[in-house]
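Quick question, first post here. What does this chain look like in 3D?
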Amino acid sequence: MPEEKQLTVLQQQKLIKPTPEDAFSEFLIGETKNNALNFIAWLRENKLMPRWDGIYRWKVNYKGKYICYINLSWPPSNGIWEVKPNRLFFGEYGKYIADDEMKKFVLDIVQLPGCNRQCGRMRNVEFLGKKFDEVCSCWPFRTKNPDGAALENLKKLVLVSRDIIADLVAADKK
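> Answer (accepted):
Ran it through. Tokens below.
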């Protein structure tokens, strides 16, 4: 009798497309889990629906353009969830962010270097009046296990991204 082939994690997830709530409930604990689940609930309340996009990764779109990715770091048992805002808005955020606390939050989540120089796409940038060397152009922003003020600022950043998309879509219609 032939041996049954085990499905990879990706193949399994393609079949079931787990929700972030299911994955967070399984792999996160305590306040980290509560923060992650509350963030997902907040997204849904704001009609921003996370859709499965890869192994323990969900994409949040608005009007067909992505706002951010949400994922569990690999392996998921390490208990870390991340939010990666849209890198294509890197240059746009400065036009929309006036609040000093929000600026500090965004500057604090700039990745230096974001992917340990593995992608080879490092660049020097100026952003919100600050110069950065070797920012990863794949994921210039990333926040891990946000809580408290960081979580509130992340929500504001999501809303800023939604505003940027709305303005881009409106400009395309002109």
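Helices lie at 9-16, 20-27, 30-45, 93-96, 100-108, 148-173.
The mean pLDDT is 87.
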